[in-house]
């Protein structure tokens, strides 16, 4: 959009001060364009993003796809007021072969079960990170420790964290460990945990700086974790060590599995259908400083002491789209991470770069005015949400035009909870996908054998999906 004539020379007199004269010029420029008055009338009465929605894009968007997985999972899940999308998305993928194998009408794994263990493991991981950073000589008011203390435990996560939880603690059906208030609305529980973790961080740093031994430090952490265990158990409940799963199949026949431990349930009944160790997570980070074909990790990022690190195998976004399409063609849904809030008509479930016409409304565009790499650098973009691809629509050349997305926000938004994403949106705002390693070339798989380059804890690639 061209600059209004009456402020073209404003820069020569501006000098950084918003003087009365400068503000008068801004005001005159605003009221000289009657379109601004119309836009003001509209936006002062309703959501500006709704006002910028393109009717043309809405009319031309059809939730129809020519390549889908065999069947989608039921019921449509809802993470409610929690940041558990990464867990919901993973369990929504894993349940598909389970539903088929056991001939079920619908099924959910317990998201609360993994959430419980993530809280326990994550708090312990944080306290041990405080030990590590203290021994490194990191000051409490330095950038690293300040970053860790800002959010000692959150709900969000990454794929490798899911693998840690499932391999150590297994899985159980939702009926055997249902939701609690703090599963669905985690803010209060997190507030309690964060307060204690900051208090405990000070105690750990004080002990180390006074010359406490490693044994003394670990004894202190054990005492602290006893309190954390109590808090989490009070808020979420404590899962039983064994359970019995009773269920009816589609033919109304009764079945029973158990008593069985969650670990054995995964190993015996789920792993043969979906082995988390056979899945690989590929990311796309187009910043010039981070080369494709390299492995990266993020300092102090994880959820389990002794667990696997979060490893980022950096590849071009075109490869991520290609492997997503290949997986869908073979009938396998795909876990992925993206920045969900950009260029989305949430009520209609449309993720399209043209779904909002911001230049028409505001006279300027937003969100896609920088490259994907620059958006990462300048804090305008990061991977914030995880969902599941269940279908793609291919053109005559076999190229992906759009994708179907299973979300975890309930059925109220989108097409009964499902979103539609264009391929162009995928390229701009998708950051990672998880596919079976059998679809990935040996050259790409070999990147996981590299010693990863360590990015700082505050790097945007360490943002956790919530």
Automatic annotation (TrEMBL):
Keyword Hydrolase recorded: yes
Reaction(s) catalysed by this chain's protein: Inactivates bleomycin B2 (a cytotoxic glycometallopeptide) by hydrolysis of a carboxyamide bond of beta-aminoalanine, but also shows general aminopeptidase activity. The specificity varies somewhat with source, but amino acid arylamides of Met, Leu and Ala are preferred
Catalytic-site annotation from UniProt: 85, 385, 407
Pfam families reported in the protein's UniProt record: Peptidase_C1_2
CDD domains per the UniProt record, alphabetical: Peptidase_C1B (cd00585)
UniProt GO molecular function: aminopeptidase activity; cysteine-type endopeptidase activity
InterPro entries in UniProt: Papain-like_cys_pep_sf, Pept_cys_AS, Peptidase_C1B
Location within or outside the cell: Cytoplasm
Keywords assigned by UniProt, alphabetized: Cytoplasm, Hydrolase, Protease, Thiol protease
Signal peptide as annotated in the record: none
EC number: 3.4.22.40
rRNA-binding listed as a keyword: no
GO biological-process terms attached to the record: proteolysis
Any single Gene Ontology cellular-component annotation: cytoplasm
Sequence similarity: Belongs to the peptidase C1 family.
Record protein name field: Bleomycin hydrolase
Species annotation: Hypothenemus hampei (Coffee berry borer)
Lineage: Eukaryota, Metazoa, Ecdysozoa, Arthropoda, Hexapoda
